[in-house]
Amino acid sequence: MTAEPLNWGARCFVVIKVLLAEDMHMVRGALVALLNMESDIEVVAQVAAGDQILPTAKSVRPDVAVIDIDLPGKDGLTAAMELRESLPGCHTLILTSLGRPGTVRRALDAKVNGFMLKDAPSDRLANAVRSVAIGRRVIDSELALAAWETDDCPLTTREVEILRVTARGRTVADIAAELFLSPGTVRNYLAAIVTKLNARNRVHAIRIATEAEWL
């Protein structure tokens, strides 16, 4: 852990450096304020898009990245996996407004350190940050159990990401631009998704994935 000890009077504190990723301005501001009220936690950076997380983390070297699961540019779980590969010393805590088993299962598969609902009590957020900073897992036990009882998603993380963006009504060109892929590659992914889900078309694939809580 890269946290730096600070002397405060006669005592020594370890300050946990946090990067916060949340696209809603008011929510982000509230979370920053809550975390900065803690003497041992400091939000050293805040971003509003998933594709800003890794470059910002490389710059500020946080101990914990608190990430909203649904971000523009790149979804939170994809960004969390990139952090694990590029900055293994940075632990990840995923926040979401939806505690669906399929969503939790995706978070577990992505090997995040923590998964919390946004409506959890504020003191739990600070304690979760402290726990994941030292490598502990923080995931609601009932949600975790429900997640393991769901069917495995046959789609890769990239395929889920592409299908999620497609579900927002984006065109192939829009998806390609947002995810830095060629239109042909996006079409290939969508064709593979339809085949894997045994769907009639993209719309049917979105419905299947949504009902299975894979999106």
UniProtKB/TrEMBL annotation:
<dbReference type="InterPro" id="IPR000792">
    <property type="entry name" value="Tscrpt_reg_LuxR_C"/>
</dbReference>
<dbReference type="InterPro" id="IPR011006">
    <property type="entry name" value="CheY-like_superfamily"/>
</dbReference>
<dbReference type="InterPro" id="IPR001789">
    <property type="entry name" value="Sig_transdc_resp-reg_receiver"/>
</dbReference>
<keyword id="KW-0597">Phosphoprotein</keyword>
<dbReference type="Pfam" id="PF00072">
    <property type="entry name" value="Response_reg"/>
</dbReference>
<protein>
    <submittedName>
        <fullName>Putative two-component system response regulator</fullName>
    </submittedName>
</protein>
<dbReference type="Pfam" id="PF00196">
    <property type="entry name" value="GerE"/>
</dbReference>
<keyword id="KW-0238">DNA-binding</keyword>
<dbReference type="GO" id="GO:0006355">
    <property type="term" value="P:regulation of DNA-templated transcription"/>
</dbReference>
<feature type="domain" description="Response regulatory">
    <location>
        <begin position="17"/>
        <end position="133"/>
    </location>
</feature>
<feature type="domain" description="HTH luxR-type">
    <location>
        <begin position="148"/>
        <end position="213"/>
    </location>
</feature>
<dbReference type="GO" id="GO:0000160">
    <property type="term" value="P:phosphorelay signal transduction system"/>
</dbReference>
<dbReference type="InterPro" id="IPR016032">
    <property type="entry name" value="Sig_transdc_resp-reg_C-effctor"/>
</dbReference>
<feature type="modified residue" description="4-aspartylphosphate">
    <location>
        <position position="68"/>
    </location>
</feature>
<dbReference type="GO" id="GO:0003677">
    <property type="term" value="F:DNA binding"/>
</dbReference>
<dbReference type="InterPro" id="IPR039420">
    <property type="entry name" value="WalR-like"/>
</dbReference>
